[in-house]
Structures are given as structure tokens and as C-alpha cells.
Amino acid sequence: MTLCVDIRHRQGDFRIEASFTGSGRLTALFGPSGSGKSSLINLIAGLIRPDQGRIEVDGKVLVDTKAGVFLPRHKRRIGMVFQDARLFPHMNVRSNLLYGRWFTPPAERYLDMDAIVDLLGIGALLERKPALLSGGEKQRVAIGRALLSSPRLLLMDEPLASLDEARKAEILPYIERLRDQMKIPIVYVSHSVAEVARLASDVVVLAQGKVTASGPVSDILQRLDLLPAGERGEGGALIETVVLRHDDTFSMTVLGSGAGEIRVPRIDIPVDQRVRLRIRARDVMIATERPNGLSALNILPGKVAAITHGAGAESEVRIDCNGVPVMSRITEQSRQALGLEPGQQVFAVVKTVSFDETSTGMGVGEVSA
Amino acid sequence: MNWLLDLTPDEWTAVRLSVKVATVAMLASVPPGILIAYALARGRFWGKTLLNGIVHLPLVLPPVVTGYLLLLAFGRRGPIGAFLAEHFGIVFSFRWTGAALACGVMGFPLMVRAIRLSIESVDRKLEAAAGTLGANPLWVFSTVTLPLILPGIIAGAILSFAKAMGEFGATITFVSNIPGETQTLPSAIYTFTQVPGGDEGALRLTLISIIISMLALVASEVLARRLGKRMDVE
């Protein structure tokens, strides 16, 4: 799938001038609130008509203001999952799910109701009315409803933003399964680094209506300067690992990576399964010699690859641990005290307990069992 | 009870005619009522304020004036009446159909108000969602908007029916008071009060009129509650 967007649009005082191409499995539109993410996917879905520009999905032109093309929303075959679910209150879950199917010609239906119900775990809810569902259940039904309209592209507009942490944790695995098992490309709007790190294959960063960067998620998350100021510490390295073994004595899981073994609190993913691990830059300490008498369990040898001194007290150090980049955020004072320079041999130190449930997720591209 | 139901044939005729006129007036008003309410709630067009004013006119004008205007327009010699009689054979003046027209016009603003309010309360985001699922605007209207405004339509229809049951001024001015053709309950009651010894008949018809109106109200309550249960609107 390729999504090409090149749009200029004005809404009141707010201007969007965005141009990007997405071809990943799950492209995250990432930026702080008010950066134009939601407007952008409303433009793709056909809920807003742009002043100028062109939108194309897999060669099919949805909008081209120069040629006078504007495909109405019901002819685009683009599924949309809204932040507020928007289930039809007068229909039960089954009718909600089947709504879009009605309007899809049989030849173009490529998804089966039973498969979707299974995938999303909503079999027990079919006869219920939306008013009787929890927030997480509503959102799963909304995802199923969008999928069953057999869209060419699935748009998700902050589908987790109105849910609490427990509900988010309930839905994230379903979105991972969707990404890995379905052939539908997804565009996912989010302002949360944790969600993007866990779900995205590619990221388009937006700020004030403009695209400031785009690329594979692991590249973008290392560019801490691209992240919103409040979330900068959430950024860092995103590395692909494999579950080596579970240590039940201490309730830990050992992950294997190019940088060496990494111990994290016990996760519920089987051995040999690929796991995507986020190491936050703010959680990484740097030692110039292998530390002794230290409680931290993860000590990864590497070489300083680059140092960026931003505004304020912090410096960002990228350490190349045997080909795997690990980001560290330390004070400029410490950097000078240690005399860190590119090329220098160092050790990246990460406490096991600094990993939490938002640190790990299924590796992209893996079909889970 | 026997005394109440022991109506003379003429009284029965008035009751039957009233129910017929009110039912026809209500049913015929629903489609244009939805159309105009939708235009007023959602439309942006020149003359919207004017349309709104015209729809509400029967509410503020004396009923006799409305009846007289109907007579001028829909009477045998009126421009619309003559046209309809000549081309379609539809005649309103001094017929029960004219009574239905007068009752429908008088109840129309009440119906439009009720439907318009319910259209304005529909969450348009739901309609947008239906659009992204592939429904064209007509399907969106019939599968999402219409079911959601059904309680408003029912409320409007009952108001229109109740208004039609009680309509007197416009009806008597437009189509007069002909027993068996245009003499509805209010006209019959009025006639009884004008003749000596008519008190008993007037009282009977008054009680029947109260009962029919109450039944209509109860029916609308029951329907609205059932719909509410079916919807469980969030």
C-alpha cells in the first residue's frame, strides 16, 4: 500500500501544509494535540474537503483539486475508527458490525464476520446494545465494524485516548494482531510515544500543521528533539529482541538482542517469540568502565556514536552497542565530567525495573501463534 | 357507561368523522413535516426565516383567519382549488377532505417543531461514521437519522392528531358545518349548545372527545417508552 498525501488546507486560523508518503504496515501520525493529526485523517477519510492538494491510495485518486476530483466519503472504502467509537445506539453489536458490509459489493468483501469476531474477542457481545458495553468493548466493536466494510485502508484516530490505562492495555494486543495478521494497512493517530513505539512501523511527525520528519519508527524515536517537550524522556531506542528464557525464581524474562542479553520484569510472551523493546533514553546511565557493586542488571558494552547537546541541562548520547543503537539522556555536567567523546568505549547501564508494560510489544511483522 | 355509548346515529357519525379527519390530517402531515423540519434544522438557504415564519403562521393567526385564507386559496374559485379540481378532480371545499386539510395545516407547526428539535439533537458524528462505512446520504438518513428521530416524529404526530381532534375555527370557516360531511366533534358540540335540550348530547360528545384525546396521549407515552428501551441512547 502506498498513501500519498499532499495537502494545503485552512481551518480558521489553523493551516495545514502536509505532504508525506506512507507505505508501512502501520504508519503513525504523531504530534502534540493541535498539530493537525486529526484534521489530516479527516481529510483522508473525506470528512473534510481540502482547499488544495491531492490524496492517493494505491494509485486510486481520492482527491485532486486541480483535476476537480473529490470522491465522497462513502465511495472511498476507507475504514475509520474514531476516538469516541460512534457505535449506532439503535442497533445491537451484530447490526453495528454488519452495517458497512451491506454497502460492500460481495466480490470486494475480503473479511469474514466470524474471523473478525474471533480476532477481537467480541463473540459474547453480539446481541448487546452499545450502551451496555464498556469503553474498551465499544472500541473493539468499532474496530470490527470498520474492518467488516472491507476497507483498502484503516484509519484510527486516537482510538485509545479516551480509555484508562487498564482498558488501553486490553486493546493494544488486538491492534498488534490486526497489524500482523490482516493485510490492511493502518494509519494511526497518536500523541503518545509509548503507543507509537509499541505499534508503529513508520512514523510521520507533525507540528503546527506541518510534517517535521518521517521514517521508520526506530529512527524517529532516537531523534529526541522531534518529540514533544513533555515526552522527550519517553523517547529512546527501539530494538528488536527475542525471548530467550523466563526466569521464574526472580520473575524475570531474558531477552536476546544484538547488544547482548537484557533482563526485563516477567512478560507473558512465549520463548522464541520476537519482542520489540523500548529503552527510554532517560533510563540509561553511562559508565566509562565496567561497573562493580551495582544493582543494575543490564550492562551493555558499546561505543559512543554521537553526542547532541540540546538546550538546557541535557545532552543526548547515542551508544552503538554492537550495531544496536541505545540512546542515553544525561546532564551536560556528567558528560563533561566523564569526558565523553565520539568513539569512546563505554557501558550503557539499564535497571531491569525501569522497564514496564509499555516497554514491550510484539515485534512488527511476526505472526503470533 | 350505557348512557355514554348510547349515541344517536348523528352523534356516531360525528365521532367517526372526527377520528377519520384527524387520522388523515396526521398521516398526510408526516412526510412534508419531516421534509420541512429537516430543511429548517440542517438547511442553509435563502428564505429560511421566511419559511419558518410561514410554517408557524397558523399558530399565531386567529383560526378563523387561517380558515378564510384556506377558503380563498383552496375554495372552488381559489387559484389552487380551481387548479386541483380541474386537473385532478380533487375538491376541498365543503368536503371532509377540506376539514382534514384545515386540521393538518393547524397542527403542522406543532409537528414541525417536535421533529425539528429531534433532528437537531441527532449526533452528526454518527452520520459521518455511517458515511465512512459506505452509506450514501440517502442511506445514512434512512438507517441512522430516521430511526434516531422516530420518537420526535411520534411526538409530533400525536400533537398533530390531538390538535386536529380539537380544531374548530379554521374548519368551520373553510368547510362549514355539514352533518355527515364536515361536522366534526367540536362542530357537533357547538351545534348542540345552540339548540334547546342539546345539553345531554353536548356533554356526551365532550366526554368522548376527552377519552379519545387521553387514549392518544397514553398511546404516545407507551410508544415513546418502548422506543426509548429499544434505543438505550447513551
UniProtKB/TrEMBL annotation, chain A:
One of its GO terms (molecular function) is ATP binding. Transmembrane segments: none annotated. InterPro entries: AAA+_ATPase (IPR003593), ABC_transporter-like_ATP-bd (IPR003439), ABC_transporter-like_CS (IPR017871), Mo/tungstate-bd_C_term_dom (IPR008995), ModC_ABC_ATP-bd (IPR011868), Molybdenum_import_ModC (IPR050334), Mop_domain (IPR004606), P-loop_NTPase (IPR027417). Keywords: ATP-binding, Cell inner membrane, Cell membrane, Membrane, Molybdenum, Nucleotide-binding, Translocase, Transport. Residues 293-359 form the Mop domain. SUPFAM superfamilies: MOP-like, P-loop containing nucleoside triphosphate hydrolases. It comes from the Bacteria. Gene3D superfamilies: 2.40.50.100, P-loop containing nucleotide triphosphate hydrolases (3.40.50.300). PANTHER family: ABC TRANSPORTER I FAMILY MEMBER 10 (PTHR43514). NCBIfam families: modC_ABC (TIGR02142). Belongs to the ABC transporter superfamily. This is Molybdate transport system ATP-binding protein. It comes from Aquamicrobium ahrensii.
From TrEMBL, chain B:
PROSITE patterns: ABC_TM1. Its main location: membrane. Keywords: Cell inner membrane, Cell membrane, Membrane, Molybdenum, Transmembrane, Transmembrane helix, Transport. It is found in: Cell inner membrane; Cell membrane. Pfam families: BPD_transp_1. InterPro entries: MetI-like (IPR000515), MetI-like_sf (IPR035906), ModB_ABC (IPR011867). Residues 15-223 form the ABC transmembrane type-1 domain. The chain crosses the membrane at residues 20-41, 53-74, 94-115, 136-159, 202-224. It is a multi-pass membrane protein. Part of the binding-protein-dependent transport system for molybdenum; probably responsible for the translocation of the substrate across the membrane. Belongs to the binding-protein-dependent transport system permease family. CysTW subfamily. This is Molybdenum transport system permease. It comes from Aquamicrobium ahrensii.
